[in-house]
Every structure is written in structure tokens, then in C-alpha cells.
Amino acid sequence: MMVLFFGNLVDITQQSELAWPFIHNTMQLQQVLYEQYPALQTAQYVMAVNGKMIQTNTILQEGDTIAFMPPFSGG
Amino acid sequence: MIDLNRYGRQIILPNFGIDAQQKLQQAKVLIVGMGALGCPALQYLAGAGIGVIGIADGDDIQLHNLHRQPLFYTADINHNKAIVAAEKMRALNPDIQLTVYPFYINNKNALSILQTYDIVIDATDNFPTKYLLNDACALLKKPLVYGAVSRYEGQLSLFNYCQPNGRNIQYRDLFPEPPHSDAILSCEEAGVLGVLPGVMGIMQATEAIKVIAGLGRLLDGVLLTYHALSAKFYEMEISKNPAVQTMNKAEFENIDYDWLCNSNSITPSLSVEEFKHLQQLKQLFIIDIREHNEIPIIDFADVHIPYSTILSANHLPQFPNVKNICVICQRGIRSKAAAAIIQQQAKQKVYHLMGGLSAYFNQ
After folding, report:
1. What is the ipTM for the molecules in this complex?
2. Which of residues 61-90 of B touch A (CB under 8 A)?
3. Structural domains of chain B ordered from first start
């Protein structure tokens, strides 16, 4: 699976793309990422699976791309 | 009357023609924010012959704007952005009508100004105004071309484009509530590549022209991000958040947008005066959290831990408890967020310097 980070979230993860072993759902993915990157827990973001924004825990498939998108405010 | 000499090169485009040009000339577009997004958007919309363009910005031109706002010249410094931009556009295209609002849009003046336009372009640089414009456009059912940047990345979308099927996506479907303003860095804090908002502002103008002329595929309910360094685009289809309600006029006018974006702050702060007083008494333990390349270089910090390290660190060191711990940065925005993190991890009371080193060296 591929995990993408945007904006200031890259300050936390230090990488904009992470190849990640298969995880069953988005909530489990969040939990393991929070263990590795504690500051992610307090960051604001929305998630998308394969380019579609999700609002609830979502079942993942092998090969899915999961994006973490924060708000941007500059202009 | 259509000036075929001026607009001929776009009129001959397939699917454009006199019809599309007429639509542009009958259109009214409001650009809120005449900074790095607003300037390029304005230039291309004025060039394309948009009939009426409103320009709103209360800010004056500063030297540090010019690297990303090349519409303005060094001689324009300290003049109002909206007024100067309009003067330049009158010289570019005398056919169009320009309306200048040389002040900030707020929730008291927004509805009366916005309602006379067909489309609003959000070229602002702060969350309070972004939420305010979103809410006003949702209330008035106006399409809103949203743009925002962060360092080398930009976001673009078309919100509130009411489709016949009733589907209507707004910014709050994506982010229902504003983050604390200290949680997300501004360009002033985080930096921005000058050309990046230029790209995004031109894309906002493109989207506005497509909406008006009825051309192509619109970014209706799609968040597009562009990363200048990886040269990659990413698209996210936004889903409707059933909890988001459009507010009415009274609700809208009663919201304190600045407070909304700055609330829940529990970080204690020190004023420059208090800071200098404690510094003289040698009762301060100062943590400089600016990145290594930031200036000015100072000699009075006890420890230097860049903000990026604080964000990614699992464990921060314990700091001496005998003194008042105070976090400093350039403007007092990152320091507030960093102080909150340190406070939480180290379980120690941590102050931050209000206004940062800019304020420190100005007093």
C-alpha cells in the first residue's frame, strides 16, 4: 500500500510517500502511524482512499493508495 | 461590442467563439485578496475581458511581497494593494470595469459586496477569511474558486457550484471547523516559493473562466493539489458531510471568525516587556525553535531545537525546572504550537514569546 502525506504533515513524517505493508482498515493504519509519528495524532487532516475522501473507517485492499491531506492557508 | 483584435486569439479557439467571449464580458468576478494568488488571477481575468472585476484587499504592498507578487513594483511599496492593482489593470485593459474595495472583507460587509458578483475567488492567506468566504458563498449560493498554498504545494477547488441535481460541495465538507491558526504555518512562517502561488492563482483564473464560459471539466467538489518539486498533481473527490449546515444571515453575521480560528489556546505567553524583564533577572530558559537557516542569529538562547524536530520527536529532553521555560520563534506562531507540544510531553509549564523575535527586536 502507498501512503501519501501533504503540506505540513510531511514535517511530521519527513516523507511525502511511504510504502506500507498491508493493513486491514484505515483506523488501524492511523493507529500504527500514530505510534510511529505521535505528532500526527494532533494534526488536522482528512483521508482519502484511492482519490476518494472518506469520513468513516474504511476497509482497505492490497495496492490501495491512502492520502492524508491537511488544510493549507497561505496565499 | 467585441474587440476582435484584442480577444481574437481566444475567440478562434475550438468551443470558445463569440459566445464565450460575450459570457466573459457579461460576467462579474470578485477577487478577495490581492496577494500572490490574487495578482496573477486578476491579470489573466482582466486580460481575458471579464466585464466587471471587484478587487478587495486592505493590505499595503511590502518589500517582502514582491518576490511572489511581481504585478507590484518597488515604487508601489506602502500603497494599498487593491488600488495599485486596479490602476495597472486599467492600463492593461480599458474595456473592463474595475471596482476597488481597499479594505478587508468581514462578516458585516461580505454579504452586500459578494451578492453583486457571479463568482468569488478566494485568494486570501488566512483561515478566518477562508471560512468567512466559504460561509458567505454557501449562504448566497455563489460559486467559490478556492486556492491556498503551503511552501511548495498548492490546493485548488471549486466550491458551492450548485448543480441541477442539488449536489453542492463546500469547504466545510472537507474541513468542517478551522484549525487553530497556530497549527498551520502561514507563508510568513513556513516560506513559499514565489512562483507557486503564481501557478495556483492562474489556475484559479482558469477555473473561473471555465465556469463562466461553460467550458471543460470543472473541479466541482474535487480538491486538486499541485506539488512544485515533485511536479505531481493529486486529486481528491470530496464527499458531502451530512453534519455541515449552511448558516443563515444572522448566524453568519454573529460569528467572530478571528476568535473561531484562535480559540482553545492554553499556551501561556510572555510579552516582550515581560520577557526582557525575566531575561535581565536571568530567570529564563530560552528554547529557540527556528530552523537552522533562519536569521537573525541570536546568542541568548539556552538551547536550539528546530520546530521540525519538535514535531517529529518521540521524546523531548527535560528542561531545568528552576527557570521559566520560554519558546521563541520569528513571529510567535510556531512557538505557541511548540510550547503546547513541549508542555504536553515534558509536563512542565512552558511560555512562548508573543510576537516572536520580530517583536523583540522592534521594541
Report:
1. 0.96
2. none
3. 4-260 (3.40.50.720), 269-362 (3.40.250.10)
For A16, the closest chain B residue by CA position comes to B230
**How far A21 CA lies from chain B's nearest CA (Å)?**
22
- Number of Cβ within a 10 Å radius of residue B184: 26
Q: At B245, is the pLDDT very low, low, confident or very high (cuts 50, 70, 90)?
A: confident
Coil/strand/helix, residue B327: strand
Whole-angstrom CA distances from B255 to A14, B52, B104, B247, B259 are 37, 30, 16, 10, 9
Cell triple for residue B224?
486538486
Say how far apart CA B343 and CA B265 lie, in whole Å: 13
Residue B121's nearest CA partner among B40, B195, B184, B49 is B40
Length of chain A counted residue by residue: 75
A32 close to B (CB below 8 A) = no
Residue A51 to residue B183, Cβ atoms within 8 A: no
Residue A62 C-alpha, separation from nearest chain B C-alpha, in angstroms: 20
Q: What is the predicted pLDDT for the residue at B8?
A: 96
- How confident is the model over B252-269, as a mean pLDDT? 71
**A30 touches B: beta carbon within 8 Å:** no
Residue B264: per-residue pLDDT: 42
Domain boundaries, chain A: 2-69
Residue reference for cell 486538486: B224
Predicted pLDDT at B12: 96
**According to the CATH classification, is domain A2-69 in 1.10.10.1760?**
no
> Which of B130, B174, B225 has its CB closest to that of A73?
B130
Contact yes or no for A75 and B147 at CB 8 A: yes
A40 at B interface, C-beta within 8 A: no
Q: By the 8 A CB rule, do B296 and B357 touch?
A: yes
- Per-residue pLDDT tens for B66-94? 999 999 999 999 999 999 999 999 999 99
Tell the residue number behind the cell numbers 444572522, with chain if given.
B250
Q: Which residue of B has its CA nearest to A39?
A: B311
